[in-house]
Design a protein that fits this description.
By secondary structure, the protein is of the alpha/beta class. The chain contains six helices and seven strands, in the order βαβαβαβαβαββα.
């Protein structure tokens, strides 16, 4: 049974989540991909403000398609998270705690997750139309020139996710591989 999680993803809440937990996420999240992350990290390096409050924020790695008439957003499936690995430790260092995407993460990202109590949620690739149904509000807040990669603020209800890597560095991808190998014996 999936655990209902209400955002923001505080440090205390993050510490209760374990790799393999199924969750239904409700609250405000932000969208960004590599181009948006690059701009935010460059601004942070210059000591500038970024266009979102990173404290306890959850960032969904997605480049949604345009909304059709009557829709809040178009298809909104996850982007491969490795594209943000160069930026994720910096974003966590300023308070971002949750990440939503697909695929493996580099050791440096997992180290930052342990240091800053971050959580990596996996979303199902190829299910963008289904995931878009969980998005109840969408607002463009910065980097409009980046098109699909612009920074957006979303309100989601019961977004189905799985904790892939928890704040202790436990990794469902590795655990699953180990279980598979043990069962082959």
């Amino acid at each position: 049974m999936a655990r209902k999680i209400n955002l923001p993803l505080t440090e205390e809440l993050a510490k209760t989540l374990k790799a393999g937990d199924e969750v239904l996420l409700t609250g405000t999240i932000y969208t960004s991909r590599d181009a948006g992350h690059k701009r935010m990290c460059e601004a942070l390096e210059k000591g500038e403000e970024i266009p979102m409050d990173p404290k306890d924020a959850t960032i969904y790695y997605v480049g949604p398609t345009p909304a059709k008439p009557g829709q809040v957003i178009g298809s909104a499936g996850p982007t491969t998270s490795g594209r943000m690995d160069a930026y994720a430790p910096k974003m966590m260092s300023v308070g971002a705690r949750g990440m939503i995407g697909k695929g493996a993460r580099l050791p440096e990202v997992i180290d930052a997750m342990k240091k800053y109590n971050g959580v990596y949620f996996g979303a199902i690739g190829g299910a963008g139309a289904l995931l878009a149904k969980c998005i109840k509000k969408a607002e463009l807040i910065a980097y409009e020139d980046l098109g699909a990669e612009a920074l957006r603020k979303l309100y989601v209800e019961d977004m189905p996710l799985v904790v892939i890597i928890d704040s202790e560095g436990n990794n469902l991808y590795e655990q699953g591989r180990q279980t598979y190998l043990e069962n082959r014996k």
